[in-house]
Amino acid sequence: MPASGAQSPRVDQGRQPARKTAFSANPGLSPFQIQTVSLFVRAAEAFSLPRSAGQVYGLLFSTPQPLNLDEMTTLLHASRGGTWEGLDWLRQMGAVEKVFLPGVRKDHYRPEVNLRKLAGGILRLRFEPHLQNGHEHLKALEASVEADSPDSEFQRTRLGKIETWHRHLNDLLPLIKEVAAE
User: Fold this and answer.
1) What are the helix (H) ranges across 111-151?
2) Measured distance CA(73)–CA(71) in Å, rounded
3) Quick check: 77 and 24 in contact, CB under 8 A?
4) What is the pLDDT of residues 19-39, one digit of tens each?
5) What is the DSSP secondary structure assignment for residue 124, as one 8-state letter?
6) Residue 93 in contact with residue 138, Cβ under 8 Å?
7) Which is nearest to 118 in space by CA: 26, 52, 35, 44?
8) Under a CB-based contact definition with an 8 Å cutoff, are residues 115 and 122 in contact?
9) pLDDT at 165
């Protein structure tokens, strides 16, 4: 029981701590910007991307003019390092582009809004590396099949299933990338 005057964390019926909202509202942002940032934070989490990537993309997406790192940090009430991490992820994915502003020294960025380009970037950064390393993992998995074990037949069957999945994914990836590039 908390001491008098102290507040306990809010809990739901299942005694779990209350969920943190996707994005804490910043009074410097419009309601549209707040909701957009929140939407892209949830999207980033769905793709296992850093939360900061969703915040930065949402801010850039909901702001008519390009922004620099300092402006993003201020508007998001975030650390410079966290904001840079999100921006760096987005740059690697091709989800933001640098914009030249005459007479301005700082780099400014705007979002890529073409869904195919965004999907292609996510595939390239999040999916391809796993397929490229798949052959080594499959060899290690094959070497781990226990020939003397009563489960060896089961293990070989499951290994065959994984090899088939890997082959299909390798065949499918170029098609997905081609559709994403159109």
Assistant:
1) 115-122, 128-132, 134-143
2) 5
3) yes
4) 344 455 567 899 999 999 999
5) I
6) no
7) 44
8) no
9) 83
pLDDT at 119: 78
Distance, CA of 55 to CA of 45 (rounded, Å): 11
The band of 108, judged by pLDDT with boundaries at 50, 70 and 90, is very high
Per-residue confidence (pLDDT) for residue 176, from 0 to 100: 66
- Two structure tokens written together for 86: 């999100």
What tokens appear for 181 in the block? 């590039």
Query: pTM for this structure?
Result: 0.67
31-113 domain in CATH 3.40.190.10?
A: no
The pLDDT tens digits of the residues spanning 121-172 come to 877 777 777 677 777 888 888 889 888 889 889 888 888 888 888 887 777 7
Burial of 142 (0-12, 13-18, 19+ CB in 10 A): middle
Burial of 12 (0-12, 13-18, 19+ CB in 10 A): exposed
Short-list 66, 40, 60, 36, CA closest to 51 = 40
Distance separating alpha carbons of residues 32 and 139, to the nearest angstrom: 50
**At CB < 8 A and 24+ separation, what contacts does 127-134 make?**
127/173, 128/173, 131/166, 131/169, 131/170, 131/173, 134/166, 134/170
Higher pLDDT, 47 or 4: 47
Please name every residue paired with 11 in a beta bridge, in sequence order, or none if there are none: 17
